[in-house]
Amino acid sequence: MQRIEQINWHTLIVGLGKTGLSVARHLSTQGVAFAVMDTREVPPSSDTLAEEFPEVPRYFGGFDADVMCEAKRLVVSPGIPLATPEIEKARSLGIEVVGDVELFAREAKAPIIAVTGSNGKTTVVTLLDLMAKQAGVKVATGGNIGMPALELLDQADTELYVLELSSFQLETTFSLNCKASCILNITEDHLDRYSGRMDLYATAKAKIYDHCDYKIVNRDDPLVVTAAGDKDIITFGVGVPNQGEYGLADNEGRTWLVKGKQPLICKDDLKVAGQHNEINGLAVLAMAEVAGIPLSPCLEVLREFTGLEHRTQWIAEYNGINWFNDSKGTNVGATVAAMTGLTGKTVLLAGGQGKGADFTPLADVVRQYARAVVLFGEDAEVIALSLKGDIPIVFARNMVDAVTQAKDLAQIGDNVLLSPACASFDMFDNYEQRGNVFVETVKRVVLC
């Protein structure tokens, strides 16, 4: 570990990478002396840090509690748990511990819309960004996707900020004042970070509602309802809504997205399938209204939106079988939504690192919707034990094996869906690589 004996800096950035580098640049513009610490010998962005800030002290190769406890403030990257012993020691001494979103919140001048949830965050934030742009609003969008939050401050004349926030980011955020905040849903995810406790995960998510004008609330999710309380709320959900709320209603045999009794857009006009996409649309419309975005451009965006890569993305139809890539389905809730959103029977490809999740909620969905299940990766056996029943379950060594077996198991009219319900890191760099490998394998094995 590189050591600088004399502590002549104020803030310690804990964890480099993309977020840590954005913090370094921000602190530099603020005239704040800082140092950087990372457990990795050569963390991502270390070369860029050395080029831009050659005099900044760097402590790489481990966490040093003595050095950490000399700081006046820690800015912790979201991937580093607050339960890390060295960070816990610093907190016990009264040292301020924040994240990059907290620093953003202290500087942002334009209204903020913030979105979290176990599933659907990126789709909803993307839709909000497109709607604002369609309406001519100068919007800056980032956080957990795209640009780090602090880099958004560099965009001149911003009229609206749209943030995607993870539970990890919310843990170290305390003064984010939003025009509207939304929790789309809370299902099991990242329980390895929260000692297997859903209540701790839900509490982290709930922080998004701490300081906001309006809470946009999924009334069908009990954990979200509990987090929101009963003040300053606008709800969305599956059923027919009350006045001023958002929901789904039948009109002459067709399902419409509605506000109160006002029809907004027919679900048949959406280019993305599945009730979860209809619910996402309701949440977006509620937030857009609070943000002052006119309805007409919002509906135009919803009509034209074809979805995002790796999110129930249609790949191809071959011999009467449709192939879908939902590699972003990294938890059980996402896979349930993907399976129930498709028409017909599905051969499910699942597996990877389960992050301590309970897979039993998949069992009923598999029983009802699955033709067969192909399992792969680190927690394949764990998933199999949760899915015991009459549906065929087979195991695959790799993606080629999984796609080959799925091709043999599927029947005309079926879907083949990659929706792993797990993280990808046992076999791939990230979910994007997993999805890309799946798509390329389908092209080679199925479409050749």
TrEMBL record:
Catalytic reaction annotation: UDP-N-acetyl-alpha-D-muramoyl-L-alanine + D-glutamate + ATP = UDP-N-acetyl-alpha-D-muramoyl-L-alanyl-D-glutamate + ADP + phosphate + H(+)
Annotated signal peptide: none
InterPro entries: Mur-like_cat_sf, Mur_ligase_C, Mur_ligase_C_dom_sf, Mur_ligase_cen, MurD
Keyword Protein biosynthesis on entry: no
Residue ranges occupied by any Mur ligase central domain in the UniProt entry: 115-288
Compartments (UniProt record): Cytoplasm
Pfam families: Mur_ligase_C (PF02875), Mur_ligase_M (PF08245), MurD-like_N (PF21799)
E.C. numbers: 6.3.2.9
GO biological process: cell division; cell wall organization; peptidoglycan biosynthetic process; regulation of cell shape
Keyword presence, Transcription regulation: no
Residue intervals of the Mur ligase C-terminal domain: 310-422
Pathway: Cell wall biogenesis; peptidoglycan biosynthesis
GO molecular-function terms, A-Z: ATP binding; UDP-N-acetylmuramoylalanine-D-glutamate ligase activity
Top-level class of the enzyme under EC nomenclature: ligase
GO CC list: cytoplasm
Sequence positions that bind ATP: 117-123
Main location as per UniProt: cytoplasm
Alphabetic keyword roster: ATP-binding, Cell cycle, Cell division, Cell shape, Cell wall biogenesis/degradation, Cytoplasm, Ligase, Nucleotide-binding, Peptidoglycan synthesis
Similarity comment: family membership: Belongs to the MurCDEF family.
NCBIfam families: murD
Function summary: Cell wall formation. Catalyzes the addition of glutamate to the nucleotide precursor UDP-N-acetylmuramoyl-L-alanine (UMA).
Protein name in the entry: UDP-N-acetylmuramoylalanine--D-glutamate ligase
Species of the source: Leucothrix pacifica
Gene that encodes it: murD
